[in-house]
Amino acid sequence: MSDALVIGAGPAGLMAAQELAAAGFDVLLVEAKPSPARKFLMAGKSGLNLTKDEPFEQFMQVYGEASVMLRPMLSEFGPDAVQAWARDLGQELFTGSTGRVFPRVMKASPLLRAWLSRMPNVTLKTRWRWLGWRGDAAVFDTPDGEQTVQARATVLALGGASWARLGSDGAWAPVLADRGVGLAPFAPSNMGMLVNWSPPMTKQFGQPLKGIALHAGGQVSRGEIVISERGLEGGGIYALSRPLREGAELTIDLLPDLSQAQIEGRLSRKRGKASLSNHLRKVLGLNSAKAAVLMEFGRPLPEGKYLAALIKSVPITHSGPRPIDEAISTAGGVTWASLTQNLMLRDVPGVFCAGEMLDWDAPTGGYLLTACLATGRWAGLGAARYLR
Which of 1, 169, 170, 249 has the largest CB neighbor count within 10 A? Predict the structure, then answer.
């Protein structure tokens, strides 16, 4: 028996456990992997982007239709609260030029160690994989054989369906479906796009494309992307995940700070004996990576105003998103209609859900982590109220 059971020790689960413990309840926190917060630690390898420092209404826009449901949670634990929480855990923060907020140490492990040390009445069990329920008891496969736990309240924070090696494999979906819980199909989010490059592009692998604008489905992203062996990836393209997975065409404006007329004017300058690539470099500042993309998708290149138009809108031929397990996050999961305002499952009283397993998605840049923390906190508070 346990007052509260939290299944999944990622950011959402840790936040739920923290709130339940702060309310005076003994908490059993279980994790399928050998250690907690593996995806959180992996994110920290690139600097741990905690949140985004920008006006709240602007921050909320990235969540699309899910912003209606997420608003009360993020109103109470949004970007400012995340920064205050991290500072309270001893982290010195800084804000980059784009508004992204990072720990000064640029790592996740110090924050995680400090966080875990603040949970004295939370018992952590690792290598406990949840198998579902038997009656009212949660069943786990553990190193010591099958274990069952009866809890007065349970928070599920099991992640989405990407990066299975770090714990988010979506295996929980059939268990909830059997209980009548509504589920939206999983779909990749914050994913790269597959491109079958021609042989000349191999020399560009690993090269960034900076100072560009990507267009898809009426949305525009000014973020940077990288030419990889398998296609295109990076924050700029991640921001367009939704329209791209829905089939929108992708185009790249290689010179978004110049108008088509300005480009035409520069292209009209005398070329002399210079090669076309050298001419484009001299008059337009197109580096080798941009010129290679232009050639890859625009050959044979037109001339004059037609070339200027192409530079402003290079059509990218791709083979769709990379596999879902390679995506940074996933859309889909437990539908909002299946949940009460406190994030309790309507068909499974006493069981709450949080984090990526809910049906929302957002681009990288601090939005994902902030919403995971906020929903985990909200579910923990809801479970504490239920227990009272």
Answer: 170
